[in-house]
Specification:
4-stranded antiparallel beta sheet; DNA polymerase, domain 1; hpI Integrase, Chain A; 9 strands; 3 domains; alpha+beta
């Protein structure tokens, strides 16, 4: 198919539009998805428009369609619901979600509005928006219905759907996610509307039990890695999966003795180890969670290397590796960090079951166990060692004296499982 083109003296408002990329004046090569589209400004407003993808691929015929569309708009006082724009501030439901996805992906045309969220969080928010669109689709054409025409009844229908599909915690997350979607349209895209999700009844969430792992349970899991059948038979087609990885036991011990999050531990490097003037060793790593939420670089967290953790590091080659930039866990890795994270999580559950432990615990409970024992020593200062600190490091080898004293105290006094904490 030939690429569509516009003459130099084109008719006002006509553009080339890619239906696949959802953009005007595309630079892609999806020529089969190109169409002409006309955008008409609504008199008396600053940015509001009406738009229509034109059927004809012949420019002269497309101009006739555009003129007829303008006449129709004037006759209906610009109240038509034929909206498919991905620009301006009046979108169909589908195009609004596409625009939100671009925004979450850091593709805002305005620098001050560029969003910095993880890809997983972006996918989750868009998933909630798609569920809302599916709910709307039962009674409306989501490709032509304007986002400003979402009603309280539409919210009610979705509320009931979410109530039947989600636990209270996920229900609240879902409704708040769609509420944020409309906040984006109102605050960033400047669509003139009220947020239909501004008020709704949140679900009460019962406080969950914080289950830590005992020394006996943890040792049983490590033993199971050596003795329990590593093959897991999955449901459905009966697929068989080998859950064993040579780095599992070291990985579990690192999680327990550092209290870090998955991405922090899997990507730990020997070069992340620093030493204070008094000789106390500690990890200094980027506080990724806080940095993302605040969109600020240069935030760090500090993990004291106590005697138990140092013994593990010695086993893993501390003296040979301490000045290298190698990963501590699985240094010769041939897979992505995310793959290792997932393997650690799933294998922990597999071997926990293999150890005969009925308690509902997972890999993240090792972090809870660490924090529980740290609190025994640090009390009010616990937050300085559990990624809740936002203190900036002024120079590479120096940290705030208050933080340093806490790290040194932790390195000397913290014992996971108490005095007899050998693993």
């Amino acid at each position: 198919m030939n690429k569509l083109v516009l003459p130099k003296n084109k008719y006002k408002g006509i553009k080339i539009y890619c239906k696949k990329c959802k953009v005007d004046n595309p630079r892609c090569k999806h020529f089969d998805s190109f169409s002409y589209r006309v955008r008409v400004h609504i008199p008396g407003t600053q940015k509001r428009i009406r738009s229509k993808v034109l059927k004809s691929k012949v420019y002269s015929d497309a101009v006739i369609e555009a003129i007829n569309f303008e006449k129709y708009l004037i006759a209906t006082n610009y109240q038509t619901i034929v909206v498919d724009s991905s620009h301006g501030n009046d979108y169909s439901v589908v195009d609004a979600i596409i625009k939100y996805n671009h925004y979450l992906n850091g593709e805002s045309e305005y620098a001050q509005f560029k969003k910095n969220v993880t890809d997983e969080h972006r996918k989750e928010l868009i998933r909630f928006c798609k569920y809302f669109a599916q709910s709307l689709k039962k009674s409306k054409n989501i490709e032509s219905t304007r986002i400003i025409d979402v009603t309280r009844q539409d919210v009610s229908d979705f509320y009931l759907w979410a109530d039947n599909h989600y636990s209270p915690k996920t229900f609240n997350k879902c409704l708040n996610g769609v509420k944020s979607f409309f906040e984006f349209l109102i605050d960033i895209e400047e669509i003139e509307m009220k947020n239909p999700f501004r008020k709704y009844s949140r679900k009460h969430i019962r406080k969950a039990n914080i289950d830590s792992v005992t020394r006996e349970e943890f040792k049983a899991i490590l033993k199971a890695v050596d003795t329990y059948d590593p093959v897991l038979v999955l449901g459905g087609r009966g697929e068989r999966k080998n859950m064993f990885k040579p780095y599992l036991k070291d990985g579990f011990r690192l999680f327990l003795l550092t209290g870090g999050r998955r991405e922090e531990i899997v990507d730990l490097k020997w070069s992340d180890i620093y030493e204070s003037v008094s000789g106390v060793k500690f990890f200094r790593i980027q506080n990724l969670k806080v940095a993302r939420s605040r969109n600020i670089d240069g935030l760090y967290k500090y993990i004291p290397i106590n005697s138990d953790l140092f013994d593990l590091l010695m086993e893993m080659g501390f003296h040979e590796k301490k000045h290298t930039d190698d990963y501590i866990l699985e240094p010769e890795r041939k897979v992505q960090s995310k793959t290792i994270m997932d393997s650690l999580s799933k294998s922990f559950t597999h071997y926990k079951n293999g150890a005969g432990i009925k308690k509902e615990i997972s890999l993240k409970n090792l972090r809870k166990t660490y924090i529980t024992w740290v609190h025994q020593v640090m009390q009010k200062e616990t937050g300085l060692l559990t990624s809740h600190s936002t203190t900036k490091v002024l120079e590479s080898y120096y940290i705030d004296p208050q933080i340093l004293s806490v790290v040194e105290k932790g390195a000397v006094e913290i014992k996971i499982f108490g005095e007899d904490s050998s693993l």
